[in-house]
Amino acid sequence: MAVGTSFRLVVLLVVGAPVAATACSIGETTYETVTLPVRAKNETRTCESPFAKPPLRELESCGDGKGHCFDGARTPLPESKLRACTGSDVCVPDKLLLAGGEKLKACTFLNKKPGACLSLLVKDIELHKNELQRDVCDDDERCAPCVDPTNGEDTHLCDPIGVHERACVGGEGASAETCCHGFGVCMNEDAAPEGSREDLQRETCPSKQVCAPAAMVEGRPVKCDVLGVAGVCLDTCFASMLRPTTVVMRGGCGPTELCLPCAIGKGQGMPGCD
């Protein structure tokens, strides 16, 4: 599940601003190694046994009292998405342990899409707690989507949910659809923030999908500094008008990136600036 898409992609071309020039030698070739990130998403996790409702008093408490240690193989979420306990147990949110086939509390995800309240004990939710809306959820929860905004697939978080009597199977290993030479993630057009849709291109994505900056979608922007101004690294795929200024605006970012000043991104939902 990919979350954290509450960003607006803003590119501003400042006409008349001074641009520094750098000298080079004719015939000189410079090489840089670019390591493309590997981005993964969840495969379908199948839990075919009946729901269980284990007695919490018999389980070890965890997560500051918001969860209990339970067999990770019997949870609808992959074990890697939950904090580790001893042995093969993981820290499962109490509301999930007690759900017993009921649905989690409904909420409204980004762009008024349906969602479910999910505990911060889930790693993805904790990672994106500042980007995800709380809506009607409790303080230790955030609103997670019923449908994955990157691929339109059902997350099953809004279905009847709970832990199970026997082990579930599957849950991880498939590669996410990428774009912009590996630094973008394909997502459905209607899942992209309304304020950014017209700025996002299809690039190499399938029909009816657009290419969004992966670091922004995942809520893990890389901070940088250009000419003494703080910013975030952004691939030139998403800032084509600024490509001629890359030499002076790289600011320690990667070979295909530039440092977008937060003076432009701040206040527009750009992770790393707000």
In brief:
Helices cover 8% and strands 23% of the residues. It has 274 residues and is mainly beta.
In percent, how much strand structure appears in the residues?
15-25%
Shape: elongated
| Coarse structural class | mainly beta
Give the number of helices: 5
Quick check: average pLDDT? 78
Give your account of this protein's structure:
With 274 residues, the protein is mainly β. It has three domains: 40-164, no CATH class; 174-215; 221-265, no CATH class. Helices cover 8% and strands 23% of the residues. The chain has a three-stranded antiparallel beta sheet. Strands 6-7-8 form a three-stranded antiparallel beta sheet, with no helix packed on it. A three-stranded antiparallel beta sheet has the order 11-12-13. Strand 6 and strand 7 (114-119) form a beta hairpin. The chain is elongated and about 65 Å long. The model is unreliable at 1-24 (pLDDT under 50).
Features:
single chain, 274 residues, 3 domains, 3-stranded antiparallel β-sheet, elongated
Helices and strands in order, then pairings?
Blueprint: E1 40-41, E2 51-52, E3 61-62, E4 67-71, E5 89-93, H1 94-97, E6 106-108, E7 114-119, H2 123-127, E8 141-145, E9 163-164, E10 174-175, E11 178-179, E12 184-188, E13 209-213, H3 214-217, E14 223-226, E15 229-235, H4 246-249, E16 257-261, H5 262-265
Antiparallel strand pairs: 1-10, 2-9, 3-4, 4-5, 6-7, 7-8, 11-12, 12-13, 14-15, 15-16
